[in-house]
Amino acid sequence: MNAEIIAVGSELLLGQIDNSNATFISKELSKIGVNVYYHQVAGDNPERLQEAVKTAQNRADILIFTGGLGPTKDDLTRETLSSMTGIDLIYDDEAMKRLEEFFDKRGKKATSNNLKQALTFDGAEVLQNDEGLACGSIFEHQGTVFMLLPGPPREMKAMFKNYGIPYLSKNISDNQKMQSMILRFYEIGESQLVDKIDDLLEEQTNPTIAPLASDDEVTLRLTVKGPSPETNEEMLNELKEKVFERVGEYCYGESDQELEQTVADMLRDKEISVSAAESLTGGLFANTMTSFAGASMIFPGGVVCYSNDAKQASLNVPSDILENDGAVSEACAKSMAEGARKLFQSDYAISFTGAAGPDPLEGYQPGEMFIGLAGPEGTEAHFVRVGGSRNRIRTYAVKRGLYLLFQELRNEKDG
């Protein structure tokens, strides 16, 4: 079965809010084997909504609407669909009762525009709103299933999970369950990764592979549709092994969990700590590491040392390194990392020094940097070059530092 999601609301088109509802609904539908090939957004205009519906009816079995069920004049989803289908709108007794109780508790009387939130389609399955007032509806018309949900995400999510999904699972699903596996890669570009698995992409049927590049990473979503979780997992693992034969060395995780969380979990599991010495990144690494609960167990502290005086005073970076090699140098990066490790008595320490831009620094162009890593086995420094804005350079530096630490922790585990 194929579904199409139509979000209704001019505020979406104006960019005032994000269409997070469509993302949520798509994820939930995939779990019960319902495909979603299109999302549409229509403003608060009956004619344009009708055009969206006509288009969707030609390519989907299930149309799911979010928004346009409220009490104001521009909430026209019910009225527009009633006009298109010829199905009358009636008041649902349970929804009406909830409305009246809501206003009675506040010592007020529901007005006529409030009461329209209790309207549903004659003969429809009513979806009660456990988090708000506007009820939802499910009905069939000329072979198409129509599902109407409220726009506020809190109300929509509760209604869809409590009533919408159970209805579809019982009446629509073909008993084929969709299941996905996320593989996350770093230090390999999307084009290079795709080139290495090109034959797998060409041959894919079920399971399928979907690459996605973002924030210096590449994600592969492996998706399978099968009769049971056990069969699906077996098929996904077989495909994963084929992918790993080509690019497994670049994979740092197998879930929605991002690199910083993966590193934090590894540190916590191994009862290992890391500290930081930051010049280039200005505390961004420390901010990242302290965003997790229980951060003090893995991150005892960090130093922001932009000036040479600060590097000497806080980390004991020797003056001859600053004078002869410079603040942006392999020697300085190593010394900074070693100083932080000693200062905070941590197992590892990481340092960042370089040119964030927009101007060059000590002969280095914006985006050129050294990242130091000190640990039980010694200290090393990596020269890195990246383009982009000042913020982009700093953000990249932190992620690259996390990946260097991840590799060290993974090698320690393998050893």
TrEMBL record:
SUPFAM superfamilies for this protein: CinA-like, Molybdenum cofactor biosynthesis proteins
InterPro entries xrefs: CinA (IPR050101), CinA-like_C (IPR036653), CinA_C (IPR008136), CinA_KH (IPR041424), Competence-induced_CinA (IPR008135), MoaB/Mog-like_dom_sf (IPR036425), MoaB/Mog_dom (IPR001453)
Organism, scientific name: Alkalicoccus daliensis
Record domain MoaB/Mog: where: 4-170
Protein name: Putative competence-damage inducible protein
Family: Belongs to the CinA family.
Pfam families for the chain: CinA, CinA_KH, MoCF_biosynth
Domain of life: Bacteria
